[in-house]
Amino acid sequence: MENSVEKIKVWFRFVPREGWFPQDTEGLWATRRSADTACLQSVPFLQNGVAEGDVVRFRTDSDGLHWAVGRVSTAGNCTLRVVPVPSGPLGRSPQAVHQRFAAFGLGGEVFSEDFPMVAFTAPAGADFTGIKALLARGQEEGWWHYEVGCATDAWRNA
Q1: Tens digits of per-residue pLDDT, 15-24?
Q2: Taking the model in full, what pTM does it have?
């Protein structure tokens, strides 16, 4: 019989950003690695400094919630967030954003229908130079706004 992999939600606490979402927490799905560590299995929409595949340490509170207290190791992945400009050529379409990044093999998740932000994981070893050029071009041409929620040295040096 195979061991079952325990999926847990790891919660992050942060200061809400001006002009951004009012939330001060975000829960990310993770696979438990030990009593107090887990590997993130989802892309963060709000939390900066971590990416899918990173291992984080957590503390479990009296309510059974697992709160992140730090990153143990990085997978080398980057977190990118892209918001289509409603009046731009892509409209509010997260599908159109996905299509632009399909050539890079990036998987992404959409925040909501009301706010069609797409959060992407750019895996270690991806074409960071090409992805950065597309992000810049899309912003210059009014397709989207974007931010990098988690970067690596390889991303910064691309």
Answers
A1: 888 877 788 9
A2: 0.92
